[in-house]
Amino acid sequence: MIDCHCHLADEQFTEDIAEVVERAQRNGVRSAIVCTEYRDQFDAVLALSTQFPSFCFAAFGIHPVQRNNISARREDATSVPEYIEEHKDRIVALGEVGLDYTPRYMNTSDAKEEQAFVLKQHIDLSGKYDLPLNVHSRSAGRPTIEVLRQNGATHVLLHAFSGNVKNARPAIEAGYYFSIPPSFTLSKEVSFIFSAYLCTYFLRIIAYRLDD
Fold first, then answer.
1. Whole-number Å distance between alpha carbons of 41 and 47
2. What is the 3-state secondary structure (H, E, C) of 38-71?
3. What average pLDDT does this structure show over 57-62?
4. ω into residue 146 within 30 of 0, thus cis?
């Protein structure tokens, strides 16, 4: 079993990260894709991939919602291309990236443009380095998939996708993968997406939430 999306660089794990990794391994997790949310986490994730080389694999990206619940802006990703170029041989994916249209984070058209700019930048990097995208799409399933497809994204994992069947179909047609969100057990529509539409492209990895 592989955790396809976790945040082990979060400060809540600073004191007991070795114990967290050991506990995960005891419970059958073979490895984990450790995603960043903020630029200042890149070094920490890289360090985890050094400390636990057969377990932690690095994914770098700028989350659409930054600290203090501020929508991501292009300046948040200013140095990302240079960092990825420098460490390209140690990265397995770009993430966590995407769009988040939750009203408390997204309340202006300018904010939408800024989030889209950051996502497009990561899509370009994905193509340049042949790296998959680990994508966030809360309250923005349709526009996220539109941006991905319009900008040529080919290797995509839609993390914890919670959109509807209509929104999911273009992603399925594009060959994108989906990870299982907690809402899988609560939402009939999300359950239907996975059971009826993802037979071909269903990601055969159960997302084990280390931080739950």
1. 10
2. CHHHHHHHHHHHHHCCCCEEEEECCCCEEHHHEE
3. 98
4. no
Distance from C-alpha of 121 to C-alpha of 124, rounded to nearest angstrom: 5
**Strand partners for 35:** 59
Closest CA to 46 of 35, 30, 38, 62: 35
Annotated binding site for a divalent metal cation: 5, 7, 96, 136, 159
User: For the residues of 18-38, what is the DSSP string, one character each?
Assistant: HHHHHHHHHTT--EEEEE-SS
Contact 58, 46 (CB under 8 A): yes
Domains of the chain: 2-197 (3.20.20.140)
| Amino acid letter, residue 207 | A
Question: Which of these ranges, 84-88, 101-105, 177-181, 200-204, has the smallest mean pLDDT?
Answer: 200-204
Count other C-beta atoms under 10 Å from residue 186's C-beta. 10
pTM here is 0.87
> What is the rounded distance in angstroms from the CA atom of residue 57 to the CA atom of residue 64?
21
Computed over its alpha carbons, how large is the radius of gyration of the chain? 16
Known binding-site positions: 5, 7, 96, 136, 159
| Mean model confidence pLDDT for the chain | 88
75-129 confidence digits (pLDDT tens): 999 999 999 999 999 999 999 999 999 988 777 889 999 999 999 999 999 999 9
Please state the length of the chain.
Answer: 212
